[in-house]
Amino acid sequence: MTARQAVDIAKIAATYVGTVVGAGFASGQELLQFFVSYGSAGFIGTAITGLLFAWLGSQLLTLGSRLRATGYHEIIYYLCGVRIGRALDNLIAFFLFGGLVIMLAGVGTVFRDFLDLPYNTGLAVISGAIFITVLFGVKGIASANLIVTPFLVVFTIMIGLNSFEYHGLDHSLLTFEPQPMLQPAPHWLLASLLYVSYNLVLGATVLGPLGAQIGSARVRALGGLIGGLILAVLAAFISVVIALHYPDVLHYEVPMLYVSSIQQSWSHYAYALTVLKAMYSTALASLFGCATKMEHATGLTFRLSILVVMAASLICSQFGFASLIGMLYPIFGYVSLYFVIKLFWYALQGKQWR
Protein backbone atom coordinates (compact mmCIF):
# COMPACT_ATOMS: atom_id res chain seq x y z
CA MET A 1 0.00 0.00 0.00
CA THR A 2 1.36 3.41 -0.95
CA ALA A 3 1.38 6.50 1.25
CA ARG A 4 -1.19 8.12 -1.06
CA GLN A 5 -3.54 5.16 -0.64
CA ALA A 6 -3.16 5.31 3.15
CA VAL A 7 -4.06 9.00 3.09
CA ASP A 8 -7.09 8.29 0.88
CA ILE A 9 -8.26 5.56 3.27
CA ALA A 10 -7.89 7.97 6.18
CA LYS A 11 -9.83 10.66 4.29
CA ILE A 12 -12.68 8.30 3.52
CA ALA A 13 -12.90 6.99 7.08
CA ALA A 14 -12.63 10.48 8.59
CA THR A 15 -15.25 11.89 6.21
CA TYR A 16 -17.63 9.00 6.94
CA VAL A 17 -17.23 9.39 10.70
CA GLY A 18 -17.37 13.17 10.55
CA THR A 19 -20.55 13.11 8.48
CA VAL A 20 -22.44 10.75 10.81
CA VAL A 21 -21.07 11.99 14.15
CA GLY A 22 -23.06 15.18 14.16
CA ALA A 23 -24.83 17.20 16.81
CA GLY A 24 -27.18 14.39 17.84
CA PHE A 25 -24.51 11.67 17.94
CA ALA A 26 -21.70 13.48 19.76
CA SER A 27 -24.08 15.22 22.15
CA GLY A 28 -25.57 11.87 23.13
CA GLN A 29 -29.15 13.02 22.45
CA GLU A 30 -29.49 10.95 19.29
CA LEU A 31 -28.03 7.80 20.89
CA LEU A 32 -30.18 8.35 23.97
CA GLN A 33 -33.35 8.33 21.88
CA PHE A 34 -32.50 5.60 19.34
CA PHE A 35 -30.63 3.15 21.60
CA VAL A 36 -30.39 3.87 25.33
CA SER A 37 -34.13 4.55 25.68
CA TYR A 38 -34.73 0.84 24.88
CA GLY A 39 -32.73 -0.37 27.87
CA SER A 40 -30.14 -3.11 27.48
CA ALA A 41 -31.53 -4.13 24.06
CA GLY A 42 -30.23 -0.83 22.75
CA PHE A 43 -26.67 -2.12 23.03
CA ILE A 44 -27.53 -4.90 20.58
CA GLY A 45 -28.88 -2.19 18.31
CA THR A 46 -25.54 -0.35 18.35
CA ALA A 47 -23.72 -3.53 17.30
CA ILE A 48 -26.11 -4.17 14.38
CA THR A 49 -25.89 -0.53 13.37
CA GLY A 50 -22.10 -0.63 13.30
CA LEU A 51 -21.97 -3.70 11.07
CA LEU A 52 -24.42 -2.14 8.61
CA PHE A 53 -22.46 1.13 8.61
CA ALA A 54 -19.23 -0.70 7.77
CA TRP A 55 -20.70 -2.83 4.98
CA LEU A 56 -23.14 -0.44 3.33
CA GLY A 57 -20.80 2.54 3.59
CA SER A 58 -18.29 0.67 1.44
CA GLN A 59 -21.04 -0.14 -1.04
CA LEU A 60 -21.97 3.54 -1.31
CA LEU A 61 -18.37 4.40 -2.17
CA THR A 62 -18.24 1.66 -4.81
CA LEU A 63 -21.53 2.70 -6.36
CA GLY A 64 -20.42 6.32 -6.39
CA SER A 65 -17.31 5.24 -8.32
CA ARG A 66 -19.32 3.20 -10.80
CA LEU A 67 -21.77 6.02 -11.49
CA ARG A 68 -19.13 8.78 -11.39
CA ALA A 69 -21.54 10.46 -9.01
CA THR A 70 -21.48 14.19 -8.42
CA GLY A 71 -24.25 14.07 -5.80
CA TYR A 72 -26.49 11.71 -3.85
CA HIS A 73 -29.35 12.05 -6.35
CA GLU A 74 -27.60 9.88 -8.96
CA ILE A 75 -27.33 7.03 -6.47
CA ILE A 76 -30.96 7.46 -5.41
CA TYR A 77 -32.20 7.26 -9.03
CA TYR A 78 -30.01 4.28 -9.84
CA LEU A 79 -31.19 2.23 -6.86
CA CYS A 80 -34.83 3.26 -6.68
CA GLY A 81 -35.81 3.99 -10.29
CA VAL A 82 -37.03 7.24 -11.81
CA ARG A 83 -40.50 7.47 -10.29
CA ILE A 84 -39.69 6.52 -6.70
CA GLY A 85 -36.25 8.08 -7.00
CA ARG A 86 -37.71 11.47 -7.87
CA ALA A 87 -40.01 11.41 -4.85
CA LEU A 88 -37.22 10.26 -2.53
CA ASP A 89 -34.84 12.81 -3.99
CA ASN A 90 -37.16 15.68 -3.10
CA LEU A 91 -37.99 14.32 0.34
CA ILE A 92 -34.35 13.65 1.16
CA ALA A 93 -33.39 17.16 0.07
CA PHE A 94 -35.96 18.50 2.52
CA PHE A 95 -34.66 16.34 5.36
CA LEU A 96 -31.05 17.21 4.57
CA PHE A 97 -32.13 20.79 5.01
CA GLY A 98 -33.74 19.80 8.31
CA GLY A 99 -30.47 18.15 9.35
CA LEU A 100 -28.59 21.35 8.59
CA VAL A 101 -31.07 23.30 10.72
CA ILE A 102 -30.52 20.83 13.58
CA MET A 103 -26.74 21.27 13.37
CA LEU A 104 -27.11 25.06 13.50
CA ALA A 105 -29.55 24.83 16.41
CA GLY A 106 -27.13 22.53 18.21
CA VAL A 107 -24.28 25.02 17.89
CA GLY A 108 -26.52 27.80 19.17
CA THR A 109 -27.52 25.64 22.15
CA VAL A 110 -23.89 24.88 23.06
CA PHE A 111 -22.94 28.56 22.85
CA ARG A 112 -25.93 29.61 24.95
CA ASP A 113 -26.15 26.88 27.59
CA PHE A 114 -22.55 25.79 28.03
CA LEU A 115 -20.30 28.63 26.89
CA ASP A 116 -22.52 31.50 28.15
CA LEU A 117 -22.45 33.19 24.76
CA PRO A 118 -25.39 34.42 22.65
CA TYR A 119 -27.26 31.78 20.64
CA ASN A 120 -26.93 33.76 17.42
CA THR A 121 -23.18 34.15 17.92
CA GLY A 122 -22.93 30.39 17.57
CA LEU A 123 -25.00 30.52 14.40
CA ALA A 124 -22.78 33.19 12.90
CA VAL A 125 -19.57 31.27 13.66
CA ILE A 126 -20.71 27.90 12.31
CA SER A 127 -22.45 29.32 9.23
CA GLY A 128 -19.29 31.19 8.19
CA ALA A 129 -17.09 28.12 8.72
CA ILE A 130 -19.25 25.69 6.76
CA PHE A 131 -19.89 28.17 3.95
CA ILE A 132 -16.18 28.64 3.31
CA THR A 133 -15.46 24.90 3.49
CA VAL A 134 -18.28 23.81 1.19
CA LEU A 135 -17.14 26.30 -1.44
CA PHE A 136 -14.22 23.92 -2.06
CA GLY A 137 -16.57 21.01 -2.77
CA VAL A 138 -16.11 17.39 -1.70
CA LYS A 139 -12.30 17.73 -1.60
CA GLY A 140 -12.60 20.57 0.90
CA ILE A 141 -15.04 18.58 3.02
CA ALA A 142 -12.77 15.51 3.02
CA SER A 143 -9.71 17.57 3.97
CA ALA A 144 -11.58 19.34 6.77
CA ASN A 145 -12.78 16.03 8.18
CA LEU A 146 -9.28 14.57 8.05
CA ILE A 147 -8.24 17.35 10.43
CA VAL A 148 -11.33 17.54 12.65
CA THR A 149 -12.40 13.90 13.09
CA PRO A 150 -9.30 12.58 14.96
CA PHE A 151 -9.72 15.30 17.61
CA LEU A 152 -13.41 14.44 17.87
CA VAL A 153 -12.68 10.74 18.45
CA VAL A 154 -9.89 11.37 20.97
CA PHE A 155 -11.87 13.84 23.08
CA THR A 156 -14.92 11.54 23.11
CA ILE A 157 -12.82 8.64 24.38
CA MET A 158 -11.11 10.83 27.00
CA ILE A 159 -14.42 11.99 28.48
CA GLY A 160 -15.75 8.43 28.49
CA LEU A 161 -12.67 6.95 30.18
CA ASN A 162 -12.81 9.70 32.78
CA SER A 163 -16.43 8.77 33.42
CA PHE A 164 -15.59 5.05 33.70
CA GLU A 165 -12.85 5.81 36.21
CA TYR A 166 -15.24 7.80 38.37
CA HIS A 167 -18.29 5.53 38.23
CA GLY A 168 -16.85 2.13 37.39
CA LEU A 169 -18.65 -0.54 35.35
CA ASP A 170 -21.14 -2.97 36.86
CA HIS A 171 -24.15 -5.11 36.01
CA SER A 172 -26.56 -2.19 36.48
CA LEU A 173 -25.78 -1.16 32.90
CA LEU A 174 -27.83 -4.16 31.77
CA THR A 175 -30.81 -3.51 34.03
CA PHE A 176 -31.79 0.15 33.61
CA GLU A 177 -35.38 0.90 32.69
CA PRO A 178 -36.46 1.71 29.09
CA GLN A 179 -38.03 5.12 28.48
CA PRO A 180 -41.00 4.63 26.08
CA MET A 181 -41.66 8.36 25.85
CA LEU A 182 -38.27 8.90 24.20
CA GLN A 183 -38.41 5.95 21.81
CA PRO A 184 -38.67 6.91 18.10
CA ALA A 185 -40.03 3.48 17.06
CA PRO A 186 -42.08 0.72 18.73
CA HIS A 187 -39.14 -1.77 18.71
CA TRP A 188 -35.40 -1.36 19.25
CA LEU A 189 -34.53 -3.18 16.00
CA LEU A 190 -36.69 -0.85 13.93
CA ALA A 191 -35.15 2.14 15.70
CA SER A 192 -31.68 0.82 14.79
CA LEU A 193 -32.67 0.43 11.14
CA LEU A 194 -34.13 3.94 11.06
CA TYR A 195 -30.90 5.26 12.50
CA VAL A 196 -28.87 3.49 9.81
CA SER A 197 -31.26 4.69 7.10
CA TYR A 198 -31.10 8.42 7.59
CA ASN A 199 -27.39 8.39 8.39
CA LEU A 200 -26.55 6.44 5.22
CA VAL A 201 -28.52 8.91 3.12
CA LEU A 202 -26.62 11.71 4.82
CA GLY A 203 -23.41 9.79 4.18
CA ALA A 204 -24.33 9.32 0.51
CA THR A 205 -24.22 13.10 -0.04
CA VAL A 206 -20.44 12.99 0.40
CA LEU A 207 -19.44 9.31 0.06
CA GLY A 208 -20.95 9.02 -3.43
CA PRO A 209 -18.94 11.88 -4.96
CA LEU A 210 -15.89 10.90 -2.90
CA GLY A 211 -16.05 7.33 -4.21
CA ALA A 212 -16.03 8.73 -7.76
CA GLN A 213 -12.67 10.35 -7.02
CA ILE A 214 -11.02 7.22 -5.56
CA GLY A 215 -9.76 4.83 -8.25
CA SER A 216 -8.77 1.89 -6.02
CA ALA A 217 -11.51 -0.55 -5.03
CA ARG A 218 -9.37 -1.71 -2.10
CA VAL A 219 -9.01 1.84 -0.79
CA ARG A 220 -12.75 2.42 -1.04
CA ALA A 221 -13.54 -0.83 0.76
CA LEU A 222 -11.03 -0.27 3.58
CA GLY A 223 -12.05 3.37 4.03
CA GLY A 224 -15.73 2.49 4.35
CA LEU A 225 -15.01 -0.48 6.61
CA ILE A 226 -12.74 1.44 8.99
CA GLY A 227 -15.13 4.39 9.12
CA GLY A 228 -18.08 2.12 9.89
CA LEU A 229 -16.21 0.28 12.65
CA ILE A 230 -15.14 3.55 14.27
CA LEU A 231 -18.78 4.66 14.24
CA ALA A 232 -19.80 1.37 15.89
CA VAL A 233 -17.24 1.72 18.66
CA LEU A 234 -18.11 5.37 19.32
CA ALA A 235 -21.86 4.65 19.39
CA ALA A 236 -21.43 1.83 21.91
CA PHE A 237 -18.96 3.88 23.95
CA ILE A 238 -21.18 6.96 24.25
CA SER A 239 -24.24 4.79 24.95
CA VAL A 240 -22.43 3.16 27.89
CA VAL A 241 -21.39 6.56 29.24
CA ILE A 242 -24.99 7.77 29.04
CA ALA A 243 -26.18 4.61 30.79
CA LEU A 244 -23.73 5.29 33.62
CA HIS A 245 -25.49 8.60 34.25
CA TYR A 246 -29.04 7.29 33.82
CA PRO A 247 -31.63 8.70 34.57
CA ASP A 248 -30.09 12.12 35.32
CA VAL A 249 -29.14 12.62 31.65
CA LEU A 250 -32.82 12.51 30.67
CA HIS A 251 -33.20 16.10 31.81
CA TYR A 252 -30.58 17.56 29.47
CA GLU A 253 -30.71 18.43 25.77
CA VAL A 254 -26.99 17.68 25.42
CA PRO A 255 -26.38 14.65 27.68
CA MET A 256 -22.64 14.27 27.05
CA LEU A 257 -22.00 17.90 27.93
CA TYR A 258 -23.83 17.28 31.20
CA VAL A 259 -21.54 14.30 31.82
CA SER A 260 -18.43 16.37 31.11
CA SER A 261 -19.71 19.24 33.31
CA ILE A 262 -19.64 17.05 36.44
CA GLN A 263 -16.03 16.09 35.74
CA GLN A 264 -13.04 18.44 35.73
CA SER A 265 -13.58 21.89 34.23
CA TRP A 266 -11.15 21.17 31.37
CA SER A 267 -13.19 18.15 30.26
CA HIS A 268 -16.34 20.24 30.10
CA TYR A 269 -14.83 22.77 27.72
CA ALA A 270 -12.98 20.07 25.79
CA TYR A 271 -16.21 18.23 25.08
CA ALA A 272 -18.06 21.42 24.21
CA LEU A 273 -15.40 21.91 21.54
CA THR A 274 -15.85 18.26 20.47
CA VAL A 275 -19.59 18.67 20.00
CA LEU A 276 -19.04 21.85 18.00
CA LYS A 277 -16.59 20.00 15.74
CA ALA A 278 -19.13 17.22 15.23
CA MET A 279 -21.86 19.67 14.33
CA TYR A 280 -19.53 21.39 11.88
CA SER A 281 -18.66 18.09 10.15
CA THR A 282 -22.26 16.97 9.65
CA ALA A 283 -23.39 20.46 8.64
CA LEU A 284 -20.85 20.26 5.81
CA ALA A 285 -22.52 17.17 4.36
CA SER A 286 -26.03 18.57 4.80
CA LEU A 287 -25.20 21.90 3.18
CA PHE A 288 -23.30 20.23 0.34
CA GLY A 289 -26.22 17.87 -0.37
CA CYS A 290 -28.82 20.66 -0.30
CA ALA A 291 -26.76 23.03 -2.43
CA THR A 292 -26.00 20.32 -4.99
CA LYS A 293 -29.69 19.49 -5.24
CA MET A 294 -30.64 23.15 -5.65
CA GLU A 295 -27.95 23.67 -8.29
CA HIS A 296 -29.27 20.77 -10.40
CA ALA A 297 -32.94 21.63 -9.84
CA THR A 298 -32.84 25.39 -10.43
CA GLY A 299 -29.77 26.07 -12.57
CA LEU A 300 -28.37 28.48 -9.95
CA THR A 301 -24.63 28.50 -9.49
CA PHE A 302 -23.24 26.32 -6.70
CA ARG A 303 -22.12 29.38 -4.71
CA LEU A 304 -25.52 31.07 -4.95
CA SER A 305 -27.22 27.79 -4.02
CA ILE A 306 -25.09 27.64 -0.87
CA LEU A 307 -26.10 31.18 0.06
CA VAL A 308 -29.82 30.50 -0.42
CA VAL A 309 -29.73 27.29 1.62
CA MET A 310 -27.70 28.93 4.41
CA ALA A 311 -30.06 31.91 4.66
CA ALA A 312 -33.14 29.68 4.91
CA SER A 313 -31.54 27.35 7.47
CA LEU A 314 -30.50 30.23 9.72
CA ILE A 315 -34.10 31.45 9.82
CA CYS A 316 -35.39 27.97 10.73
CA SER A 317 -32.76 27.24 13.40
CA GLN A 318 -34.59 29.05 16.19
CA PHE A 319 -36.37 25.92 17.44
CA GLY A 320 -35.24 23.60 20.26
CA PHE A 321 -32.39 21.18 19.59
CA ALA A 322 -33.77 18.01 21.22
CA SER A 323 -37.29 18.58 19.88
CA LEU A 324 -35.94 18.87 16.33
CA ILE A 325 -34.07 15.56 16.67
CA GLY A 326 -37.12 13.79 18.09
CA MET A 327 -39.39 15.16 15.38
CA LEU A 328 -37.32 15.07 12.17
CA TYR A 329 -34.90 12.16 12.49
CA PRO A 330 -37.42 9.31 12.92
CA ILE A 331 -39.44 10.61 9.94
CA PHE A 332 -36.24 10.92 7.93
CA GLY A 333 -35.43 7.32 8.85
CA TYR A 334 -38.79 6.02 7.60
CA VAL A 335 -38.53 8.00 4.36
CA SER A 336 -35.03 6.74 3.58
CA LEU A 337 -35.66 3.13 4.68
CA TYR A 338 -36.64 2.10 1.13
CA PHE A 339 -33.35 3.47 -0.19
CA VAL A 340 -31.35 1.45 2.36
CA ILE A 341 -33.32 -1.73 1.59
CA LYS A 342 -32.50 -1.30 -2.11
CA LEU A 343 -28.85 -0.62 -1.28
CA PHE A 344 -28.79 -3.74 0.91
CA TRP A 345 -30.37 -5.85 -1.86
CA TYR A 346 -27.95 -4.68 -4.54
CA ALA A 347 -25.03 -5.17 -2.17
CA LEU A 348 -26.05 -8.80 -1.75
CA GLN A 349 -25.87 -9.27 -5.52
CA GLY A 350 -22.11 -9.03 -5.95
CA LYS A 351 -22.36 -8.82 -9.73
CA GLN A 352 -23.99 -5.39 -9.40
CA TRP A 353 -20.79 -3.90 -8.00
CA ARG A 354 -18.22 -5.20 -10.51
General description of the model:
The model has no long low-confidence stretch (mean pLDDT 82). The protein is globular and about 50 Å long. With 354 residues, the protein is mainly α. 80% of the residues lie in helices and 0% in strands. The longest helix has 34 residues, at 265-298. Helix 1 packs antiparallel against helix 9 (188-213). The protein has one domain (3-168, 181-353): Hydantoin permease (Orthogonal Bundle), CATH 1.10.4160. The protein has helices spanning 3-20, 23-27, 29-34, 41-67, 72-80, 82-113, 119-134, 137-167, 188-213, 217-244, 255-261, 265-298, 302-316, 321-348.
Radius of gyration: 19 Å
- Helix count from the secondary structure assignment: 14
Q: Please give the CATH architecture.
A: Orthogonal Bundle
Number of domains: 1
**Structural class by secondary-structure content:** mainly alpha
What is the general shape? Answer: globular
Q: Tell me, what is the CATH class?
A: Mainly Alpha
- Amount of beta strand: under 5%
The stretches of 5 or more residues where confidence is low (pLDDT under 50) are none
